[in-house]
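Thread: Modeling a multi-component assembly for a lab meeting

Hi all, long-time lurker, first post. My supervisor asked me to bring a structural picture of a complex we are working on to next week's group meeting, and I have zero experience with this. I have the sequence lines for every component (1036 residues in total). Could someone generate the structure of the whole assembly? Inputs are pasted exactly as I received them:
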Amino acid sequence: MSWGDRRAVARRADLGRVMVIATFTLLSVAFFRLQVTGSDRYRVQSEENRLRPVPIPAPRGLITDRHGAVLAENVPGYSVSLHAMSALSLGTTLDRLSPILRTDSVERELILERYRLTPSEPVLVRRNATFDVVSALEELRPWNPGLVIESDPKRRYPFSSTTAHLVGYVGQVSEEELRLGSHPGARLGTLVGRDGIEQFYDAELRGRDGVKYVEVDAMNRTVRDAGIESTLEPEPGRTIRTTIDLELQRFVESTFPPGRRGAVVAMDPRSGEVLALYSAPSFDPNVLVGGVDPTEWQRLAASQDFPLFNRAIQARYPPASPFKLAIAAMALRRGIVTFDSRMTVPCRGGFQYYNRYFRCWRVEGHGSVTLAEAIQYSCDVYFYQLGLKLGLTGLLQDGTALGFGSRSGIDLPSETEPIFPSSTEYYNRRYGPRNWTSAVTLNLAIGQGEDAQTLVNVVRFYGMLAGPHGTTTAPHLVATRQGQQHTLGLSDRDLADLRASLVAVVDRGTAVAAQIVDLRIAGKTGTAQNPHGPDHGWFVAFAPADDPEIVVGAIVEFAEHGSRVAPVVTRIIARYLLGADAVKPRGGEYRLETPADSAPEPIPILPDTALLRGPGRDTVGRAR
Amino acid sequence: MRGRTLDSALPLWSVLLVGLGLILLYSAGVTDVPSAASEIWKRQALWVGVGLVVAVFAFRVSPRILEWVTPAVYVGAVLLLALTLIIGTGAGTASGAKSWLAIGGRRLGQPAELAKLATVLMLARHLGPKREPPSTLTQLLPSLVIVGVPFMLVGLQPDLGSALVFVGLLFAMLFWAGVNHWLLLLLASPFLSLLMAFSTLSWGVWIVVLTIVLLWVRPYVVEGLVVWLVNLAMGLLALELWGRLAPYQQNRLLSFLNPEIDPRATGWHIIQSKVAIGSGGILGKGLTEGTQKRLAFLPEQHTDFVFSVLGEELGFLGVLASLTLFALLILSLIRISQRAVDPFSSLAVAGVCGILLTHIFVNVGMTVGIMPIVGIPLPFLSYGGSFLLVCFLALGLSARVAFEARHSGYTP
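Re: Modeling a multi-component assembly
Sure thing. I ran the full set together rather than chain by chain. Output:
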C-alpha cells in the first residue's frame, strides 16, 4: 500500500469516516421511521398481537312452568378446545388425545374443518366433557400445551320426555346459519334453540355474550387475563316463565295410553294460556343437547313413530265430529236454525243426495232429531242437511272466519297450517271448474273432505265455545304474549245451549264412558278416517260446563273412536279441577267401552265424474 | 496526550457495548413463556471473561509475530472451514446448514468467525508490503483468491451472512490500501449485475452504464472484456444461481422484498421485529417489559434479533445511544488504523473495521427491514461465543496497534 503518502491516507480516513457516519445515519433514519413516525401503527399491531378477545358465554335463560318449576336449566360442564399452529399439528394432537376423547374419523374431519375456518382461535373439540375426561386431559397438558379446558354449562331438561316437544332442545349453530345471519349475536359454537320454546324464544333466552381480553403468546396460548377494565360482562338470558302447569303436564304423560301415538293440549279458555301440551311418543331432549351422537340421531329420525314430530301442532287430522260444533255455530249465527229445529229428512241411517247415498254412522238411524239431539248423538244425516242449508260458500266463508284456514298462532316453531278451503276457488283450482259438485258440502259438514286440522287449532275453536261470551285468545305458552282474539259471535243463550248439548254428549251421548260424577263436563268425540289403518280418535272437552276453566283436546292415533279417548281427557280435566287426590292416572273405574258408532268414510269426489252422468246408483258409501 | 486519549477510547466504547450486551441478554431471558434464552446472560458473562483473557493475550502479541504466523493461521482456518463442510452441523434457524464444528455432539464453535479475522490478517500481509496499490484487475487477483477461498467455503455451508462479511472486509481493505475507486466499482460490478438481474429493465440499464464506465476508466482491453462478459454472465446466470439457493434462503430474500407474502412463516421474523421496534416508540416499553419479546412474538431475541429487544424496550433514544456507541467504536478504529506505524497493522485494523461495520449494518438493517434476513450476529450484543471471542481478539490486536503507535514516538 502507498503507506508513505500520509495525506492520501488521511484523505481515505476522512472518506471512511464520512461513509461510517452515513451508514449509521441511514440506520438511524430507518429507526426514526419505525419508532417515531410509524410508532402508533406498530403499537396497535403489538397490542393486537398480544391481546385476544375471548367471548364470555352468556348463561342461557331458564324455562319454568307457571309456578316456577324449572323445565330447562344449566348444569356445570366442561368444553375442551385446542390451539394449534397448523392443521397438521392439530391432527397429530387429536390422534394423541383420541384414546381419552374417543373422537372418530368423522368428528376428526369436522374439527379440522372448523379449525380451517378460524385458525387463530381455539377449536372446539369436545363439548360436555365429563370430569373424568377433563382430569385425564389435564394430566397430559405438559405434552399438549395448546389444550384449553373451559367451564361450559350444559343444558339439561330435568323432566326429559315429559316436556320434550314443549320446551324443545338446543344445538350448536351451524355454519350455514351463521352465514345467513339467522341468529344475531351467535358465533361458532353458540347453542341455539332447535325446537319448542328454546327455539321460539331463542333471542330472549340466549342473552348477549360478553368479552374479555387475554394476553396470548406467539403460539396463541393464553398467558394471563389482560385485566378487568377491558372486560365486557355478559348479559344473561331471560328466564322464560311458561303457562304450563308441570303437575298437569306430568299427569298427561302418565295417563296417556302407553304405546300409543297422539297428542294432548290443555288450555285455559279464559286467557288462551296453554296448561299442558304433550305429544306421544316423546324423546329425551338431553341426548340432543350440543353435539348429537350420530347413531342416536339416526335412531330418532328413522323411528317409525317419528318421536321428534310434535303431533299437537304439526300433525293434521280430519276434524271429524268435533267439527259439527263449528257447523252448528255457523248455522246458529246465521239464524238458519234454532236448537229445536228439525231437518226435513229424518235420519234413517243415511241420506240420498242426487245420485249418491251418504250414510250416518248409525245404521239404524236416529229418527227425527233436534239440533241439540243431533249434537248429542252426532247424527250425520242432520248435519248433511244443515251443511246444505248453510251452502258451500257460506260454510267456507264462516269456517275461514272461525280460523280453520289458518294456524292457531301458538308460540311454538313450525306449526303446520291446517287445510280448509277459503272459497270455492279452491275446488276449481284443484279439480277444475266442472269436475266437482256441491256434494263436497256434505263431507265438510261432518268434518271430512277438504278439511284437516291440527289438534291445537281444534282446541282453539273449543276455547271459543268455552270462553266467556264465546271469546278466547289464541293459545300461547308465555303469558306476556299478545295472542289474537277469536270470537264465535253467538248470543250468550245460544252459547249456553251449545254447551248444554255438549254436556249431554258426555252424560248420555257418545262419550258416556267419560263421565265423572262431580263435574259437569262438555265434550265431543270424533273419529277421523284413516286410509292407512284403524281410525284416529278425537275427544275435545271443557269443564266446568257453566264457567269453563279448562279445555282439553286429545287425539289418539288408531284409537278407533273418540270415546276411547274420552276418559283420558276427562281424567286430565278432573286432575286439574279437583286435584291430585280425585283421580288415579289409570284406574279400573274408567274401563273403555267401545260403542259401535264409527263415522262414515268420506265420500270420494274424484275421479268419479262418470257417476254424475251415469245412471243413479247408490253404491257409494262405506266399503268396510 | 493525544496518544493517551487514543488508548482509552477503544476500551471505553468496548466496555460500554459489552455491558449493554449483558443487560440486553438478561432482558431477552425475561419472558412469559419458556425460552431458551432464560439464563443466557450468565453464559455470555462467562464468554466475556474468556474474551478479556483472549484480548489481553492478543494485546501481548507483537504485530511482527502475528504477521509471521499469519499464513499458518490462514491455512489452518481454511482447513477448518473445509472440515466443517464435511462434518459440520447446523443450529438455530439455519439448522440445515453446516456451520458448526462439533466433537461428540458438543458444539465447539463456528470456524467461519475465526476465518474472517484470519483472512483480514492474510490480506494485510499480502497488501502491506506493496509500494503501490494494485492498479489493474490482474494485480487484484491474489487478493481475490485470498478472500475468495474462505468466501466460497462459507458460502457452501451455506452461510449467506458470513459470506457477505468477507465481501465487506475485502472492499474495506482494498479501499484502505488505496485501490482506485473505479477499479473497486468494476470489481463490484458482477455483484451489482446479479442484483440488477431481477428485473430485465434494470439489468439492461446497468449493462449500458457499465459499458460507459469501462470506456471511461479504460482498463486493459482483455480485463475490460472480461469484466463486461462476467457481468453479462451474471445477469444470465442469476436465475440459475437463484435456483441453487436453499429454499429458506429464497424465502428470506422474497420476504425481505415483501414480508406480507407469508406473514406466519417466512415473513414472520421481519414483521414481528418491525412491530417490536415500532411499538417501542421514542422511550421504549422499559427494560424487560417488551411484550413482543415476553410473549415470544419476537424470534431469536437473544441472537440475531437482540437489537429488536433494544428497540422495543429502550425506544428510539436507546437505539440512537447504542448506534452512537457503535459509530464511536468504528471511528476510533479508523483513527488507530490511520495512526498505525506499519502498513500490516493499519490494514489489519481496517479489516476489523470492515468486519464490524458489515456485521452491524446487516444485523441492525435486517431488524428494521432494510436488509434481508441473513443470520449474522451483532458484535458485543448478540449471544454467541465464537464471534464474541473473535471480536475480543480483534480489539486486543487493535489496542496493540494503538499502543505501538503511541510508543513509536512518531506521530504523523
